Amino acid sequence: MGRRTNVILGLIALLILTGSLGALVYNASTTGSTDVLTVCGKEYDWKDLENRFETRESNGHSGILVSDLVVDSGFKDPEGKSIRFIGADGYQKEIPWASAGNGLIDVGEKKVVFPDLYKSFWVRDLVEIEVVE
């Protein structure tokens, strides 16, 4: 009976492993990434961002200030508004300007980091930033 139990447990483990790998492959194939970051309707090439904007440091993170990008995009007065960050997988976070303006765009990892907020506010594979009226 011991051998039969081991075979059954082995088959169950194999099924779980196969299902997990299938989910990983599916997720990787459906999650797209892009070379363009859209900020308030203006497109920026990820490769050029570090050359166009000053990189800042904050709490061990480095990147481009969200406020620099929003202002450069042509949006005049974000005070009192919220900023929405959208990832390639559709994940979104909306953050008040008072907190979002100090966020950093990590160009290498294509994500937004908020050194003073929990990681749950960070958005990876960032594709769009928009001001919410």
Helix share, percent: 25-40%
Distance between the termini: 68 Å
CATH class of the largest domain: Alpha Beta
Instruction: Specify the structural class.
Output: alpha+beta
Count of extended strands: 9
The CATH topology annotation of the largest domain reads as: Sulfite Oxidase, Chain A, domain 2
Cα shape? elongated
Beta-strand content estimate? 25-35%
How many domains make up the 3D coordinates? 2
Order of helices and strands: HEEHEEHEEHEEE
Q: Radius of gyration, Cα only, in angstroms? A: 20 Å
List keywords for this structure.
5-stranded mixed sheet; alpha+beta; 4-stranded antiparallel sheet; single chain; 31% strand; 9 strands; Sulfite Oxidase, Chain A, domain 2
